[in-house]
Amino acid sequence: MSKTSSSSQALRWFPWVAIAVLLAVRLCHEWFGPDIWYHLALGERIARTGATQPADNLLLQQPAFVNVYWLFQLLVRGTFALGGIVGVSALFIACWFAAFACWLRTTGAGRCAAWGVGLALAIVLVCQTRFEERPEVFSFFFLALQIDALARWDLAAAPRRSALVSFTLVQVLWSNVHGYFVFGPLLVAAKLVSVAVGTPRADWPRVRPAWRGLWLLAVLTVVATLVSPFGLRNWTGVLTLWNFFGTMRHEVQEFLPPTGAFMALWTVKLFWLGWATTLLAALYVLVNAARREAFALLLAAVGLWLSATSFRNIPLLVFFGAPLAAVVLQRLAAFRPFEKLSALTVGAAALGLAIGAVAGAFGPSSFGIRESPAASPIHFAGYLRADGFRGTLFNHPADGGYLEFHFPALRLYGDSRYVEAEPVREYFAALRRPEAFRQLDERHHFDAALFKITESRAVLLALATDPRWRLAYADLHRALLVNLASPAGAFARVRLLAFYRGEDLAVRANGEAALQWAVLFAEANDPDDLLRLLHALGAAPRIPAAVIETGLRYGLAVRNAPVLAAARTLRSKMIVAKPADTEVIDRLLAQTTAP
Questions:
Q1: How many CB atoms lie within 10 A of CB 48?
Q2: What is the DSSP letter of 28?
Q3: Which of 480, 477, 526 is nearest to 505 (CA)?
Q4: CA 110: distance to chain centroid?
Q5: How far apart are CA 592 and CA 556, in angstroms?
Q6: Do β-strands 543-544 and 392-394 pair in parallel, antiparallel, or remain unpaired?
Q7: In what order do the strands lie in the sheet with 469-474?
């Protein structure tokens, strides 16, 4: 092989290898989603009891919940037992790679390298908004697999038995993993419609065997959705979730459209650029080849609609849009301007982003498989193990799955399973409003309550000034208050307040938590705990200006010299969002030294 040929081959593979490296790097991150933990907890119970919908130990009961995820839960539970969170992350990484491989096969992006590499890099960046350990990842894989099978369906002959069997088996697996299984029959229906619309009358004798095969596939696919321990309840469970999403879409962040605050994410801006491009491509194909490309157009329309209406559905634009991308790439195949330069540019960009992620350019959670102290109650779990508390605990739903998995005997209020609107709405209200929490407490008589400081400061303030409750534990993100009237509340004889454990306060989630603690103690007129907080945060290399400002304003208001002195020592570590912050701090500091 000549040197020129070798360099051409290397250039051809370079951008694809770089994109694969970027994908792997972006998938190796902290576990920041809460759902994986309740799935692991249910998987453990399924393995122990043999029941696909095992009884849980939660105070909040939602009878409408149908555990369509049971097979996924068993899979991740077994993987966790073998390899821990690294093993489970490897499973999800493999699933994402398989889904993208199906996308590449459907689109033919590898055969149109000049345009395909740029498109592949873009879809990795767009999909990274949903790089979480959730069962929907398996849905993306099964969806991509079925779309690829239907896009390649041979209309010139009757389908082979192996094609029917493999498609049906995929649907059976999908129907026991995640609620998106309903897309399977809809995909086949879209293929039937596209064949009916796109086949000229003269060609019907040729396509009739394939047409009959598609109808058989439609029947097999619908039957496959019922091959589940829940039978028809598989569908009623999905319908319940659909109704819940509609009712609660303004109260659960991921149900909202990817607009508003989401636009602060550059990947969401990129998504909307891709969305607009997909719409223009669909309009172009609609004008030029509507009948022939009806399947691609139908799926693209579904992807455009679903991704625009919910943040969680952003990847659906990519996978539903794959057949349309194939049509467009075929038309662009002959147009290859600056092909080598494009390949080098895309490859270099992908490698640069991967190196940046490893170096922490996208935040401390951008690389490294580990538990997240902000997302999971890791430090509180250590406190529980040392203390042995086993009473009833009101908790944030994002913490429920983790505690449920690690402390199966603990009576928690709830986890992040959301099915029934009214009890979930009541749950959310109790996290934010003191009167709503007290109403819930009157019914359940909690022994203790675990809150996130950033979401429940108002409730914490009300309980901190209530003689029936006592702050027993705190870390940067969470606070445990115990009910002194409860027998189980007697366990908290010692207060463990560890507000800083090495977190980077320049990270928004950590800095906001530190600020909320400072505001809470100032509002509660608690100089001792405010002083304790400021001393603890003094170990951090960087401290948000707002924390220092809160300490200074409180110290000046009540003329507390120790608080003022503690806040003053933090000035050299101050992080400012804008120059005006420095002016405010310096003006307050000047007041502390005024005679």
A1: 11
A2: S
A3: 477
A4: 29
A5: 7
A6: unpaired
A7: 411-412, 392-394, 448-452, 478-483, 469-474, 496-497
How many angstroms separate the CA atoms of 167 and 46, rounded? 27
Cα(223)–Cα(241) distance, integer angstroms: 21
**Which structure tokens are listed for 445?**
């008589």
Work out the number of other CB atoms within 10 angstroms of the CB of residue 576.
Answer: 15
**Residue carrying the six token digits 């003329």:** 559
Closest CA to 483 of 466, 499, 495: 466
Q: Are 508 and 534 in contact (CB under 8 A)?
A: no
Question: What DSSP character marks residue 375?
Answer: T
The 3-state secondary structure of 270-324 reads HHHHHHHHHHHHHHHHHHHHCCCCHHHHHHHHHHHHHHHHCHHHHHHHHHHCHHH
Rounded Cα distance, 371 and 29, in Å: 9
CA distance 145 to 100: 10
Q: What is the pTM of this model?
A: 0.93
The dihedrals phi and psi of 371, each to the nearest 5 degrees, come to: -75, 150
Q: Which of 386, 476, 418, 115 is nearest to 253 (CA)?
A: 418
CB 429 within 8 A of CB 436: yes
What number of other Cβ atoms are within 10 A of residue 535's Cβ? 15
Which residue, chain included where needed, has tokens 């095992």?
A: 54
Query: Are the CB atoms for 15 and 117 separated by under 8 Å?
Result: yes
The H or E element that residue 470 is part of is strand 469-474
Cβ-contact 455, 513 below 8 angstroms = no
The DSSP output letter for 206 is H
Number of alpha carbons in the 13 Å side-chain half-sphere of residue 461: 17
Residue labelled with tokens 């109650």: 377
Is the distance from CB of 157 to CB of 209 less than 8 angstroms?
yes
d(CA 302, CA 308): 10
- CA gap 546, 574 in Å, rounded: 9
Classify residue 323 as left (phi > 0), alpha (psi -120 to 50) or beta. Answer: alpha
| Continuous H helices in 112-180 | 113-127, 136-151, 161-174
Which segments of 388-445 does DSSP mark as H helices, in order?
A: 397-406, 421-432, 434-444
Q: Give the DSSP H/E element, type plus range, for residue 62.
A: none
pLDDT tens for the chain, 595 residues: list them. 555 566 677 778 999 999 999 999 999 999 989 999 999 999 999 999 999 999 888 999 999 999 999 999 999 999 999 999 999 999 999 999 999 999 999 999 988 878 999 999 999 999 999 999 999 999 999 999 999 999 999 998 999 999 999 999 999 999 999 999 999 999 999 999 999 999 998 989 999 999 999 999 999 999 999 999 999 999 999 999 999 998 998 888 899 999 999 999 999 999 999 999 999 999 999 998 878 899 999 999 999 999 999 999 999 999 999 999 999 999 988 787 777 888 899 999 999 999 999 988 776 667 899 999 999 999 999 999 887 787 899 999 999 999 999 999 999 999 999 999 999 999 999 999 999 999 999 999 999 999 999 999 999 999 988 999 999 999 999 999 999 988 876 665 567 899 999 999 999 999 999 999 999 999 999 999 999 999 999 999 999 999 999 999 999 999 999 999 999 999 999 999 888 889 999 999 999 875 5
Cβ atoms of 72 and 177 within 8 Å: the answer is: yes
